[in-house]
Design brief:
The complex is a heterodimer of chains A (386) and B (260).
Chain A lengths: L4 H18 L3 H7 L4 H9 L18 H14 L1 H21 L2 H12 L4 E5 L15 E5 L2 E12 L6 E12 L5 E9 L5 E3 L13 E12 L3 E2 L5 H37 L1 E2 L2 E2 L4 H30 L3 H30 L9 H9 L9 H11 L6
Parallel strand pairs in A: 1-4
Antiparallel strand pairs in A: 2-3, 3-7, 4-5, 5-8, 6-7, 9-10
Helix pairs in contact in A: 1-4, 4-5, 4-7, 5-6, 5-7, 7-8, 7-9, 8-9, 9-10, 9-11
Chain B lengths: L3 E4 L2 E3 L20 E3 L1 H16 L4 E6 L5 H10 L3 E5 L9 H15 L4 E4 L11 H9 L3 E11 L2 E7 L4 E7 L2 E5 L11 H7 L4 E4 L12 H4 L25 H11 L4
Classes of the chains: A alpha+beta (386), B alpha/beta (260).
C-alpha cells in the first residue's frame, strides 16, 4: 500500500473528529432516526466532501485513497455517517464532476463540495436495481424542457433539508435495436412534481437520509441533461465502480469497530473468575476479526491505489468487486462474531455492537449485491457466466 | 497588521505511559508525543487574529527531533511557518533556561508583534514561561486570556480569576497567554495537511542564538529533581453495606474526612 505520512496525519485527524463530534451523539441520533445536518456542515468545513473535487470548485484535488480513509474512520464510529459521506461524494458529487457541463458544475458543485448541500443519485427503481436497463422513468423533450414521469427508490441523501438536486436516469427514447435509450437528468429539489416521499423505516443506517422519489410531470430546462444523451447508463456504471471501493472502505471501518469493541470487552468481562478473552473459544474468534480487518484493508487500499495511479479500467473494476465482496461479507460475519462475544449485552441497544449488527447487512446489498460482484468477478476471469 | 509568534510544545501523550530518564527528567524521546492540547488554543487564537486583519503566524518550539511533529501539526492547522530550536545541550533544561532559549529565538525572529502561548504545557504544567519570557524580552504580559479583542495596536483581554474577572489591556509588543475557554480550536483540513508539506521550517541550534551550552541543560537548572515514584494505583475504596443505617454510616464517613 502506498500510504504517505500525510495520509497518516489525515487519518488521525478524521479519527479525532469522529471521536469528538460523532461518537457522543450517535446512539441518540440512531434511536431518533435523526439525520444530523449540522454534522454534515462540520464535515464540509473539514473538507471531507471536497476531498477529490477540483480546487476551482472549492475542493482539495486530493486522491481517492484519502476519501477511503475518511469513510473508513467515520464508519468505524458509525456506518450511517460513513455512508452519508460516501454517497455525498461518490453518488452526489462524482457524476456532476465527471459528466457535468461547466454551467452545471458552477451551479451545484461549490455548495456540494463545501457540505452546505447534498445531492442524490436516482438510479434504482421498483422494477430496476442491478438491472438498470429496466428503467421505467421516462423523460421527453418538449418545448426546450425535459418532462419527467416515474419513480425511484432507496435514494440516499435525496430528501434532506439541504438536498439541492437529484441526478436521475430516465428513458429518453428507444434505440434502433429496441433497447431503451437511457439519459441522466439533473432535477433540482423543489421542482414542482418532484416529491421525496416519507423516509424509509430501515433495518439499519437510521441516520442516513433515504427516500422513495416520485416524478409527476416534472419540467426542467433542456440544459439539465447530464453528460451525453443516451449515455446515462454507461455513466452510472462508471460511477458505481468507484462507489464499490468506497463501500469496501466503509465495511473495513465496520470490521475494525467490531475488533476494537471485542478486544476491549473480552479483556474486561469476566466469567468463572477470568476474563472471557482468556478462553480460546472467544480469543480465536477475535483473532479472525483482526485477519478480516487487515485483509480487507489491503484489498480496499490496493484498489484505491490502482484508481489513483490510473490503472486500466478493467483492472480497477475487478479489484473493486473483489474488495467490495470480501469486505462486505466479512463485515456481516464480524458483526455476528462480535455480537456473540458480547453475549446478552450484544443484543441490547445500549451497546454499540447492536447498531453495527443492524447496519452491516446492507453492505452486501448496496452498490451491487454480493451476487452481482461474483458475476462481475467471474466475467473478469473470462468465464462464460450469464 | 500583527505578526504573531506562537510557542508550541511537544509533550508525551497523556493517554500513554509516561516515563522518566536516568536524570529524573521527563522522557520526551522514547514515548509517543503530540502538540500540547493547550497550545492548540493559542494557535487558533493567533490564526483568528491574522485572519481578521493580516500578518503571519510563526510557531516556535524547543525540543528533541520528534518535536518537529508539534510544529507540523500547527502548520497543518494553518500557521504559516515554523522554527524548531534543536540542540542536545538543551535536554533537561528548567523553565528559566527554556525561557532564555525562547527569548533568544524570538529576538532572532525579530519581526513580530505578539508572542502567544497556551495556558500551560500539559506535561510540566508550571505555567511560568510566559511571565519569564515577558521579563526577558522586557514586554508587557497579558496572561490567562479567556477573551481577546484588538483595537489598533492595543489588545484587551478578560482574565477570569476565582474571585473576580479582570479586564486588562496593553499596547505595542506583548506576551499573551490564552486559556482553553477562549475558542474552539479547528481541525486541520485535508488541504491544510497537504499545504503544510510546503511551509518553511527553520532549525536552529543554541549556537545560532548565541547561547553557551553551560547556560542550558540539567547542569544549569536552578532546581533538581531528586527522585520520583509513580503514584500508587488507586485503592479499592470502602464499601458501606446498608443494614438500615447506611445513611448514618455515610454521614459519619464524610464527617470523619471533614467534608461536612
Amino acid at each position: 500500500m502506498t500510504l504517505t505520512p500525510e495520509h497518516a496525519d489525515f487519518r488521525a485527524m478524521v479519527r479525532d473528529f469522529a471521536a469528538e463530534k460523532v461518537a457522543p451523539h450517535v446512539a441518540q441520533w440512531d434511536r431518533d432516526h435523526h439525520f444530523p445536518v449540522e454534522l454534515v456542515h462540520e464535515m464540509g468545513d473539514l473538507g471531507l466532501f471536497g476531498l477529490t473535487a477540483p480546487e476551482e470548485f472549492g475542493g482539495a484535488g486530493g486522491d481517492f485513497t484519502s476519501l477511503c480513509i475518511a469513510i473508513e474512520e467515520l464508519g468505524r464510529v458509525d456506518q450511517s455517517v460513513g455512508i452519508t459521506l460516501e454517497a455525498g461524494v461518490g453518488l452526489g458529487i462524482a457524476p456532476l464532476q465527471a459528466f457535468g457541463s461547466d454551467a452545471q458544475k458552477k451551479q451545484w458543485l461549490p455548495d456540494l463540495v463545501a457540505g452546505r448541500a447534498l445531492a442524490g443519485f436516482g438510479l434504482t427503481e421498483p422494477g430496476a436495481g442491478s438491472d438498470a436497463g429496466g428503467t421505467r422513468t421516462r423523460a421527453r423533450l418538449e418545448d426546450g424542457e425535459w418532462v419527467l414521469d416515474g419513480a425511484k427508490q432507496f435514494i440516499t441523501n435525496s430528501g434532506s433539508a439541504i438536498t439541492s438536486l437529484v441526478t436521475v436516469t430516465a428513458r429518453t427514447g428507444d434505440r434502433p435495436d429496441g433497447r431503451p435509450e437511457i439519459s441522466a437528468i439533473c432535477v433540482p429539489s423543489g421542482t414542482p412534481g418532484f416529491v421525496a416521499e416519507k423516509a424509509y423505516d430501515k433495518l439499519g443506517w437510521h441516520l442516513s437520509d433515504t427516500h422513495p422519489l416520485t416524478f409527476t410531470d416534472v419540467h426542467v430546462p433542456e440544459d439539465h441533461l447530464l453528460g451525453e444523451r443516451g449515455r446515462g447508463f454507461a455513466q452510472f456504471l462508471a460511477t458505481l465502480d468507484d462507489g464499490r471501493i468506497a463501500i469496501a472502505a466503509l465495511a473495513v471501518g465496520c470490521i475494525q469497530a467490531c475488533l476494537d469493541l471485542c478486544v476491549e470487552y473480552a479483556g474486561q468481562r469476566t466469567t468463572f473468575g477470568v476474563p472471557i478473552g482468556s478462553k480460546q473459544g472467544v480469543a480465536f474468534q477475535i483473532s479472525d476479526l483482526a485477519v478480516m480487518a487487515e485483509a480487507g484493508r489491503a484489498l480496499t487500499y490496493q484498489a484505491a491505489a490502482m484508481k489513483d495511479a490510473g490503472a486500466p479500467a478493467k483492472q480497477i473494476k475487478q479489484a473493486a468487486s473483489i474488495a467490495k465482496l470480501y469486505t462486505s461479507e466479512s463485515a456481516v460475519t464480524a458483526t455476528r462474531i462480535a455480537t456473540q462475544v458480547f453475549g446478552g449485552y450484544g443484543f441490547m441497544e445500549e451497546y454499540p455492537i447492536a447498531r453495527f449488527y443492524r447496519d452491516a447487512k446492507v453492505l452486501e446489498i448496496g452498490e451491487g449485491t454480493s451476487e452481482v460482484q461474483r458475476m462481475l468477478i467471474a466475467k473478469g476471469l473470462g468465464l462464460p457466466v450469464e | 497588521m500583527a505578526n504573531i509568534v506562537v510557542l508550541v510544545k511537544y509533550v508525551p501523550d497523556a493517554t500513554g505511559d509516561r516515563t522518566f530518564t536516568s536524570d529524573n527528567t521527563v522522557d520526551r524521546v522514547g514515548v509517543d508525543g503530540l502538540l500540547s492540547e493547550l497550545d492548540e488554543y493559542a494557535v487558533e487564537e493567533a490564526l483568528k487574529v491574522v485572519e481578521a486583519g493580516d500578518g503571519e503566524v510563526t510557531v516556535l518550539t524547543v525540543g528533541p527531533e520528534q518535536a518537529a511533529d508539534a510544529v507540523r501539526k500547527a502548520l497543518q492547522i494553518g500557521a504559516h511557518k515554523g522554527v524548531h530550536v534543536l540542540d542536545d545541550a538543551i535536554a533537561g533544561s528548567d523553565a528559566a533556561a527554556t525561557s532564555l532559549v525562547l527569548a533568544k529565538a524570538i529576538e532572532k525572529i525579530a519581526d513580530y508583534d505578539i508572542v502567544m502561548t497556551g495556558l500551560a504545557s500539559t506535561d510540566g504544567a508550571m505555567s511560568v514561561v510566559p511571565a519569564m519570557l515577558a521579563e526577558r524580552l522586557g514586554l508587557p504580559q497579558l496572561t490567562f486570556a479567556s477573551e481577546l479583542t484588538i483595537e489598533g495596536d492595543t489588545i484587551r483581554i478578560r482574565r477570569d480569576g476565582d474571585a473576580a474577572t479582570e479586564t486588562i489591556e496593553a499596547s505595542g509588543k506583548m506576551v499573551v497567554s490564552v486559556t482553553d475557554q477562549i475558542n474552539e480550536p479547528r481541525y486541520p483540513s485535508f488541504k491544510g495537511i497537504m499545504a503544510a508539506k510546503k511551509k518553511p521550517v527553520e532549525t536552529w541550534s543554541i549556537a545560532d542564538l548565541g547561547i553557551e551550552a553551560s547556560q542550558v541543560g540539567t547542569a544549569a537548572a536552578w532546581t533538581k529533581v531528586l527522585s520520583f515514584e509513580p503514584r500508587p494505583p488507586r485503592t479499592a475504596g470502602e464499601i458501606v453495606t446498608d443494614e438500615g443505617d447506611g445513611g448514618t454510616k455515610l454521614a459519619e464517613y464524610l464527617a470523619s474526612k471533614k467534608f461536612v
